[in-house]
């Protein structure tokens, strides 16, 4: 990359945030148009691991322009509220992960929680 291209890229990115979520990473970037107006890019990067241990990333990008901010925000809020109101905040797919352990939070004091000594540890691979 020559110096002029590098300067253009640096000018283009104005403000950035990153959200890491398991195998996915979301990049939120404010960028500048040639006319020096701002827009947002949202990039999802997902890591895929091959059988040989190597990996690659697949990226998907959304460009969001100022004229769409209000409608986009309203619809996003409506959709997230719908999901949370109808399915709650628990991530159901986590139950299907091999190492899933549900953590329960109790309002009771620790002396009211039953001891694990009364439970038998069973490994289903032994059955």
Q: Could you please describe the fold and organization of this structure?
A:
This protein has 127 residues and is α+β, with helices and mostly antiparallel strands. Helices cover 23% and strands 32% of the residues. The chain has 2 helices and 4 strands; from the N terminus they run H-E-E-E-E-H. It has helices at residues 3-12, 69-87, and strands at 13-21, 24-32, 38-49, 55-65. A 4-stranded antiparallel beta sheet has the order 1-2-3-4. Mean pLDDT is 77; it is low at 104-122.
Name its key features.
four-stranded antiparallel β-sheet, alpha+beta, flat, 4 strands, 2 helices
Oligomer: single chain
- Ends distance: 60 Å
Shape: flat
* Share in β-strands: 25-35%
> Average pLDDT across residues?
77
How many strands in all?
A: 4
Order of helices and strands: HEEEEH
How many DSSP helices?
Answer: 2
| Strand ordering within the main sheet | 1-2-3-4
Q: Biggest sheet: strands, sense, closure?
A: 4 strands, antiparallel
What's the helical proportion of residues?
Answer: 10-25%
Low-confidence stretches: 104-122
C-alpha Rg (nearest Å): 23 Å
What is the SS-derived class? alpha+beta
């Amino acid at each position: 990359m020559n110096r002029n291209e590098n300067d253009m890229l640096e000018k283009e990115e104005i403000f950035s945030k990153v959200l890491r979520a398991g195998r996915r990473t979301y990049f939120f970037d404010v960028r500048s148009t040639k006319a020096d107006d701002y827009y947002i890019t949202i990039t999802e990067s997902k890591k895929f691991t091959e059988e040989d241990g190597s990996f690659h990333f697949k990226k998907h990008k959304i460009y969001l322009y100022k004229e769409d901010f209000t409608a986009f925000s309203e619809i996003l809020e409506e959709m997230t509220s719908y999901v949370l109101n109808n399915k709650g905040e628990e991530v159901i797919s986590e139950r299907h992960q091999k190492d899933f352990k549900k953590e329960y939070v109790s309002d009771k004091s620790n002396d009211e929680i039953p001891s694990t000594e009364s439970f038998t540890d069973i490994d289903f691979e032994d059955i």
